[in-house]
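Supplementary material to the annual report.
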Amino acid sequence: MADKLHFNLVSPERELMSADVDQVDIPGSEGWMGVLANHSPLMTTLAPGMVKIRDGSDEKRIFVRGGFAEISPAGLTVLAEEAMPAEELDATAIARQIKNAEEDVADADTDEKKVSAQQALDSLKEMQAAL
Amino acid sequence: MPSLKDLKNRISSVKSTQKITKAKQMVAAAKLRRAEERAKESRPYTERMEAVLANLAASSEGNPNAPRLLSGTGKDKTHLLIVATADKGLCGGFNSSIVRLARERITKLQGEGKEIKIVTVGRKADDMLKRLYGELIIWKTNFMEVRQIGFAEAHAIAEEVLKRFDGEEFDVATLFYGKFKNVVTQEPTAQQVIPAEAPEGVETPDLKGAVYEYEPDEEDILRELLPRYVAVQIFRALLENVASEQAASMTAMDNATRNAGEMIDKLNLQYNRARQAQITTELIEIIAGAEAL
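Predicted assembly:
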């Protein structure tokens, strides 16, 4: 195998990953992008979705929402607003949360509450779509 | 001269005060460790963000279409002061030193004829500023109900501030918080967040002649990145504030515990003297009585 790509995934609250890997697929706002070592410098915003990290036969998936990816000769850096390893996501739990969130939206008595409930619902739906 | 009973009461009251300060000191020490860890964990993100921003700012320099968050409104009339303190006291001069720094800045800016607006973060900031500058406070928030300050809280503050910036309510925003240097030193700090100052001393990667590609274009990215940068700066300030608060509280409570200890010693001495004096008096009375017979 040729060179390895140095990959960093950080969210404001912690560093989720820092490793040398073969390939990373990122959900760019303009479309999916597979990044290998020695990619040309690039900067892109991210759409909500799964970042797929491949190293040998291993594949890891991390859900990210919002953020940026920067590719420089030093490697790929993903600055995610929110990030969560796929293993921590649970389809049934999300489905249940979505149901709750939908009820919240319906129950909201003020505009403010409605907006925040709607946001919570949207983000949950994005997660579900990504799974 | 206080009676023996008075002294006994005072000793027991100081003892229970010491118990409280000691407990608070230990709680602060435990919380400090966690706060420090969190501040450390957030560092990679901030550093990366700064590198990316420095990169972008350098390439958009002199661009007349640069976002206003970076280039400013072109005016310097209205200043927004975001004063971040703790919600609770018992942490020595921590809160008041931040507020003092903010107050000095307010006086200075008012002397220059600038308009001032204040946002307070944390209950103590509001308590201390509302008496003097109550009508200048345009928004306040605190974390009384938040167990652990996360990015969401910082984001909410940033959103509120940015909304007001877009509404042209102010030109320059400065953030006041306690910078955590180490356990004994916390430094009240003023940091300008809007217009964003490109961080200095950040290494930009050597591209070996290649140029960055941007998806979507540079301006869109910058437009998305800047608000987030503001949020990140606020987040970092909040984390440092928490660490500083706990460190200051630990030191203050350590001092208080020691002072209480000294006071107990002193009172004990006084108590023993008084007791001895009483015994002596009683003896004298008995002897005098016996002699008189």
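The interface with chain B takes residues 8, 10-15, 18, 28-30, 40-45, 68, 70, 72-74, 77, 79, 81-82 of chain A (CB under 8 Å).
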